[in-house]
Amino acid sequence: ATYTVQTSFNAGDFSTQYLTEHWLPKIAEMTGGRVEIALTPNGSVVPAKETPHAVGLGVIDGDWTSVNYFSGLEPAFAILGDLISGYDTPQQMAGFCENGPGEAVWQKALDEVSDGEAHLVGCAPYSREALPARVPIRTFDDLKGKKIRAPEGLASAVFQAAGASPVSIPFSEVYGALEKGIVDAADASAYVNNASTGLNDVARYPLYPGIHSMPSMQLSFNREKWEDLSEADRKALRDWFYMAMADLTRVVAEQDAALAAKDAAAGKVEVIDWAQADRDRLRDVARIEWEKFAAKGPLAKEALDANLAYMKQIGLLK
Amino acid sequence: MRRFFACCAAAMDRVSVFTGQACASLLFACIALSALEVVMRYGFDHPTSWSIEVTMALCATAWVLSVGYVTERNRHISITMLEILVGPKLWRRFRLIQILVSIGAVTGLILAIWSPAMRVIARPEYSGTALNSIQPSYLKVVLLAGCVLYVAQLFANLIRWFQGTEKEDGGGH
Amino acid sequence: MGIEIITILIVLGLLALMAIGIPLGVTTLTVSLVTAVLYFGERAGFFIVSANVTEVLHKYELIAVPFFVFMANVLERSGIAHTLFESMAILGGRFRGSVAVQTTVVAVVLAAMSGIMGGEIVMLGLIALPQMLRLGYDRKMSIGIICAAGALATLIPPSVVLIVYGLAAQVSITKLFAASAVPGLLLASLFIAYVLVRVRLNPSLAPIYDIPETGLPFVQRLRFLNGAILPAVLIMAVLGVIYSGVATVTEAAAIGAVGSLVVAAVRGELSWTMARDAMRRTALTVGSIIWLVLGAVSLIGIYNRIGGGDFLRGMLTSLDIAPIWVIVVMMAIVMVLGTFLEWIAILFITVPIFAPVVQDLGYDPVWFGVLFAMNIQIYYLSPPFGPACFFLKSVAPKDVELQEIFAAVMPFIALQAIGLLLVLAFPDIALWLPSLVE
Ligand code: NA
Ligand code: NA
């Protein structure tokens, strides 16, 4: 059968095209044609933040969504969706879901926003966002006093705690604000995307690999439809999701790295890569903000505890 | 009985006009807030975190709650080409159908947004931004209020249709 | 039931409801509710409608619409158009057809301040039409030029049509505003050229109009430029702010709204009653627009979900013709819809389906947006549903019949079509300016 899955990637995005070309045929192959997925772009059926309910009601069969959209519905998703300055690599974060305690607590949060009608297939990030900056921010201490565009709640709190002053402006304003120095740095997107929107032309000191955001996505299925699948097909679907995300991560990272190296060599930008010590210091500051955020609800607390436990397990935290 | 209905319609008209004109003042406030934000951002280098969410909430309120006023003045955009073709008598029948279909559709919309609106009242939905306001919850509730106002005014128009006291078409183009 | 049949049923349902005069917002809402409930059942169907409808209120860019409408309402009540018209008369000098040319120039300046069409035609209809008729200008030419030039309000930025297009097609409104400026001026030039050629061929169409000041040398006439100073400042404030990227389109619209009040105050025309009435009229206008948008968005969401978007896209892309002809087909569809539908309805029916195809074919959706806005120019004039003609009728002398107006605009529709074809053939006319802004 064909399952309609709405993604939070936009119609023209590289990710949408890459998944459609390389990975949608594969799931049909893996399940002998029993599971075919039709990926519909962001907002095509319902707005991104409504997908859990839409999945629950069977309006769409599944969603492949950046769960940051749900953080207003359930604070746990702010922590699960983008634990600011938490993991250093997308692989670590994916491990939290695939091999760690991630899926269990994630499913609980998903139950909360879908009335228990949506089943989590898997969860993983696909890129570490770069941070375009118009002034050099080379170390943790350089953050002090910098004006950084960060509209999301947790990102804003972490930057504030690190001594910067977060500014909330709409994304459409980021270019102008960086150009005119209204902000020194701006929460935006992956390196390649920032380059194509011209942000790196006006903000010539991009922090890459980034220091804050790593948005995570979920693949969920309508519970009934999920339960109708055979055990083998369910396993295939989950494996497929993690393979697809790992592949997408790899491709995006390769593109980012190649372009960053090229830009740096051409003298267009100075790419700043923080030392591990600075990343660790930011993580320590961020951790206090995570804790405050987790106080917003029992599930948020559970989500954070699961993350902390896994980070200790892999040696990111002591 | 006839007088009672006439009074109901007149009262509803007054409510709608009053709300609509109050909405006009809200739009004033929106303009002032947006202009102020530009001054704060570029004049004082000090953008606010609340301006956009507040402006949107105010504007949505004005936008949705002016519906009674719009309905009372018959200013909804419609195609009235047939009016000349079919003549005034048949068009009067069409007017009745217009009102009844509108009542049906907006009632349908009320049914559709009812449970989402009740849900956010029971369990508020926040914007998830630094401000983390309840703007998303508010917008759902205000839309529900707008729909109720819309239906109420449609019933007032229905009374006027039966009593032959309909107002002139506002020519809503 | 196949998507083909459902599509036909939906179209028939829409047409039937519209024909009996049911408000367009209610029409689309009814059809979407019925489709949703039949297809998904009550719970899921209601959910999909409510989710999409609520989302409309989260569109920040849409807030620019009431601001621009208010700005136009204030300007309409000030004497700014009148002063502008007089200044242009003196600056322009004496030549055959001068008043028609001057009307077009004033229309362009007004268009750069106003984002909606109605007010501008009313202003021109009140100021320029009586003047031209009094001077013995050909009636048809006078009426036609006012409708056509007045319609430029939504092609020359700012433009509410382009704002809503930008939202529906998900493209930058700033770029759209940059791209539509030159095509707008192109149309204005076509109108002027047409008038000049016709009065040259047939001088009886336009007697030469003489006012004493036009006898002065040009340099001395320049001091009559002051009527254009305030409009210039206001245009700079709004378009300058947008093009430089200092503020969002919404904020620029707010600046424009405040600016229009300042202009009215400077001219001594600002009063509490005037501002209040302008705001009430704004509430009425935008209060009816929002239901149109709500209904249209709801219908599109449902239609996409049942595979309609894919179906129509598939049909367009499977056409066995060169890509540019696909665009031509789209333009023809918009033109046909434009004879009887409201522009927002046309936009929401066509753009969500066309825009992805345009991109797939390798064209720039900004360019397509300009083509769309130019097509909307034709929609304003084309009978039987020609809003510009209705607006002019409402202020024209009693003896001007709607039929006469429709006949008068025909040559101008042809000019609009020529302009559209030029931009279609030479996309750089539109895309040149945005490439500079980049
Ligand atoms: Na304009
Ligand atoms: Na038309």
TrEMBL record, chain B:
Keyword Transmembrane part of the UniProt annotation: yes
Keywords: Cell inner membrane, Cell membrane, Membrane, Transmembrane, Transmembrane helix, Transport
Listed GO MF terms: transmembrane transporter activity
One matching Pfam family: DctQ
PROSITE patterns, per database record: PROKAR_LIPOPROTEIN
An annotated GO cellular component: plasma membrane
Subunit structure: The complex comprises the extracytoplasmic solute receptor protein and the two transmembrane proteins.
Name assigned to this protein: TRAP transporter small permease protein
Species of provenance: Tistrella mobilis (strain KA081020-065)
Organism placement in taxonomy: Bacteria, Pseudomonadati, Pseudomonadota, Alphaproteobacteria, Geminicoccales
Automatic annotation (TrEMBL), chain C:
Location (main, coarse): membrane
Location(s), subcellular: Cell inner membrane
Domain spans labelled TRAP C4-dicarboxylate transport system permease DctM subunit: 12-428
Claim: Transmembrane is one of the keywords in the record: yes
GO molecular function terms noted in the UniProt entry: transmembrane transporter activity
One cellular component (GO) term of this entry: plasma membrane
Annotated Pfam families: DctM
Presence of the UniProt keyword Flavoprotein in the record: no
UniProt entry keywords in alphabetical sequence: Cell inner membrane, Cell membrane, Membrane, Transmembrane, Transmembrane helix, Transport
InterPro entries: DctM, TRAP_DctM
Segments crossing the lipid bilayer: 6-39, 60-85, 105-129, 141-165, 177-197, 224-246, 252-270, 282-304, 324-354, 366-385, 405-426
Membrane topology: Multi-pass membrane protein
Binding partners and assembly: The complex comprises the extracytoplasmic solute receptor protein and the two transmembrane proteins.
Family matches, as NCBIfam families: dctM (TIGR00786)
Family designation: Belongs to the TRAP transporter large permease family.
Biological function: Part of the tripartite ATP-independent periplasmic (TRAP) transport system.
Name of the protein described by the UniProt record: TRAP transporter large permease protein
